[in-house]
From TrEMBL, chains A, B:
Residue ranges of the region described as Disordered: 1-28
PANTHER family tied to this protein: HTH-TYPE TRANSCRIPTIONAL REGULATOR RUTR, HTH-TYPE TRANSCRIPTIONAL REPRESSOR KSTR
InterPro entries: Homeodomain-like_sf (IPR009057), HTH-type_TetR-like_transc_reg (IPR050109), HTH_TetR (IPR001647), KstR_C (IPR041642)
Superkingdom, taxonomy of origin: Bacteria
Family matches, as Gene3D superfamilies: Tetracycline Repressor, domain 2
Keywords: DNA-binding
Domain HTH tetR-type: 27-87
DNA-binding annotation, residue ranges on this chain: 50-69
Protein name as it appears in the record: TetR family transcriptional regulator
Length: 216, 216
DNA sequence: CGCTAATCTAGAACAAGTTTCAGACTTGAT
DNA sequence: ATCAAGTCTGAAACTTGTTCTAGATTAGCG
């Protein structure tokens, strides 16, 4: 253990205000917790992420777990942030190939969907937490939402979206979340989710100011 | 239609298979429970609906409450079914006035939204339960979804929707639920919900086979 | 190094959803 | 009217999220 404690302050959180800069050991604890959370979630979904188990798995006292993440929902939303970062990185490497913005967005979302299908339990835990979150988790949920927006705008290839386009993006996110839920709860098939995503993505063409399709 | 309705068993549940026909006293219990649930929800939302309190409020033992509704989520989803019936009745009386199908659907949803705004806590309890529901509640959630679909198709004035239109309706429902959630958790304003609803309703025109706007 | 504040730990305690059980009450059929 | 089966009640127990506490550790500082 080199005594150079000054170098610490890992502060790499993606675009997060980083209220209190964490020491190395704290950052390590945080990672262990998130890892344990994702692992338990992958096993059995939302219910399998039990706070006592997360604490034990990550070698941290229950009280400490709650100091890092003030509730199970906070923990799972943070887990989602974490996974979203991964995903964004992965997506960046291979940008979608579609001709139109609508196609590219649909392709991107379907790619993300396929990733979720590989870990359906994890998806369950994260999405349920996200939609169940109450006001006390708003900042974190909002961060997830912003990150998702960035991914979609990326796929659209837009620098300066119009308010109309932003609204379309919001609607796409709504559809994305809700379609995932219907899939996770077994009320919609994978095919149906695909159709819904493709359907809602048509809104993009409708709000494209460079195209002809805008009546109002 | 089979006019064999002379049976005394109350069995008025809207289009529900009515597995076991309930006696009068049982129907009365069921009503008391749903009433207590709605009342507590109106006070303090999801968290305020505590099973022990519902049981006491409706003069029923805890075990009995669980026999009628096997979980808090089941109870709240049933409460939503109940409220949706009300709403559908109300909406039927004054059909929306818009010129286009899109306008009428948007108007209908905004009317429903205004009703929810009058009881935001109740809305919170019902919508949170709906999106948090897992597979064990699928049939009930599906019933709510079907009822919502009927309301939207009603507003569109359609008898035989195309698969494309059904997909658009599903997307509208997705947006409706998810937009409600963002509003309830304080991440979107009422105005924003309105915009999103209007935006997604444009999909209806896009999928109207009698109109010109359908490129593909 | 030695001090102080902050953080961490183990564990008990509490809250609300859910389950269980013995006994009392209803219902439906004979 | 009577009996068996099914239902309801009251209360305790169990589960898991959350809070609290007292004492050990760690971090930052002079």
């Amino acid at each position: 253990m080199p005594a150079q404690a000054k170098v610490a302050k890992v502060e790499a959180r993606t675009s997060q205000p980083a209220s209190p800069p964490l020491t190395e050991r704290q950052e390590a604890r945080r990672r262990r917790i998130l890892h344990a959370s994702a692992q338990l979630a992958s096993r059995g979904g939302f219910d399998a992420v039990q706070m006592r188990e997360v604490a034990e798995s990550s070698q941290v006292a229950l009280g400490t777990l709650y100091r890092y993440f003030p509730s199970k929902i906070h923990l799972l939303v943070a887990t989602m942030q974490d996974q979203l970062e991964h995903m964004h990185g992965t997506l960046r490497k291979k940008p979608p190939q579609g001709q139109t913005a609508a196609e590219r967005v649909a392709e991107t979302l379907m790619r993300a969907f396929r990733a979720l299908q590989r870990e359906p339990h994890l998806a369950d835990a994260m999405v349920r937490a996200l939609t169940f979150a109450d006001r006390s988790v708003s900042p974190e949920v909002d961060q997830v939402s912003r990150q998702t927006t960035v991914i979609i705008l990326d796929a659209m290839g837009l620098e300066n979206p119009t308010p109309e386009q932003l609204s379309a993006v919001r609607v796409i996110e709504h559809t994305w979340h809700s379609a995932l839920i219907t899939w996770l709860s077994g009320r919609a098939s994978i095919a149906q989710v695909k159709i819904d995503i493709e359907t809602v993505c048509r809104l993009i063409d409708l709000t494209d100011p460079t195209a002809s399709g805008k009546p109002s």
